[in-house]
Amino acid sequence: MRETKEIQLDELNTLADRIARVREMAVEIERLPDGTYAPLGSHLAPVEWFSLAAVTKSTSNAHAFQLMVQTRNTIAASALIRMQIEAAMRLFGLTLVDDVEEAGALLMKGEKYSALRMRDGRTRLVDRILHEELSKLYAWVSETYEDTSAFVHLDRVNINSKITYLEKGGFFNLAGIDTARPDEAYYHLVDTFFISLRRTRDLLRDFLMTRPQPEHRQAELEKLRESRYRALESSDPRPGGNSVGEDDS
Predict the structure, then answer these.
(1) pLDDT greater than 50 at residue 95
(2) Which residue in 120, 119, 54 sits closest to 88, CA to CA?
(3) If exposure means fewest CB atoms within 10 Å of the residue's CB, which of 50, 56, 74, 156 is most exposed?
(4) Residue 33 pLDDT more than 50?
(5) pLDDT digits (tens, 9 = 90+) for 207-230
(6) pLDDT at 244
(7) DSSP string spanning the chain?
């Protein structure tokens, strides 16, 4: 299922089920390149290596997010949502540039992402532009990005999220975990991470469809192997290109 302006999400009964859904989506993302970046031995373009960075970022975030929710580390879990949105934003940004191959080469050389420009040649791909452009497809992106950014930075939300209001006043939890918080309090958080992960899956799948497919890569790989074999033959100075160990007498 692919959400656009409206989020489409099946309702699940438990927190464990929601975490399992996140885990399954992470596995799907991990396996997506297998159907494109094949066969074994194929050469990848720099922009394709960059797309693999989006894969590993997503699977790493998903693993950490699961642990943060299970240990009731609310602040760190919320920050991971923002990290996942940013990973998707930067993958999406490759659709906004004039030359995706050049963009990938620059990024893999260590150039900052904000150095890339949109097709107009002027607008830099800073985070604000990325989430605003992506929000044209996924209406919830900008608001969620801004909300979760507060957990990345030292912001008052780090105070508000730790206050529990009791009958005799407020209690401020200085610990890094919220052991008393029930499962239900994490439903929205886990669902938000899931749709961010699913959106990354969709963008990655779109990107992979624009790349050379396995049949083309197999043909290119065979050409490369053949050219290397011919080069080795032509570099053998002996008549007939005898191999080492043959009797030339």
Answers:
(1) yes
(2) 54
(3) 156
(4) yes
(5) 999 999 999 989 988 888 888 878
(6) 41
(7) ---SSS------SSHHHHHHHHHHHHHHHHHGGGGTS-STTPPPPHHHHHHHHHHHHHHHHHHHHHHHHHTT-HHHHHHHHHHHHHHHHHHHGGGSSS-HHHHHHHHHTT--GGG-B-TTSS-B--HHHHHHHHTTTSTTHHHHHHHHHHHHSS-THHHHTTEEEETTEEEE--SS--TT--GGGGHHHHHHHHHHHHHHHHHHHHHHHTSPPHHHHHHHHHHHHHHHHHHHHHH--SGGGPPTT----
pLDDT mean over 40-58 = 92
Dump the DSSP string for 41-81.
TPPPPHHHHHHHHHHHHHHHHHHHHHHHHHTT-HHHHHHHH
CA dist 157 and 149 (Å) reads 10
CA 216 to chain centre: 25
Distance CA 131, CA 146 (A): 9
Residue type, 24: E
pTM across the whole model: 0.80
Over its C-alpha atoms, the chain yields an Rg (Å, rounded) of: 24
Encoded tokens for 176: 């890094």
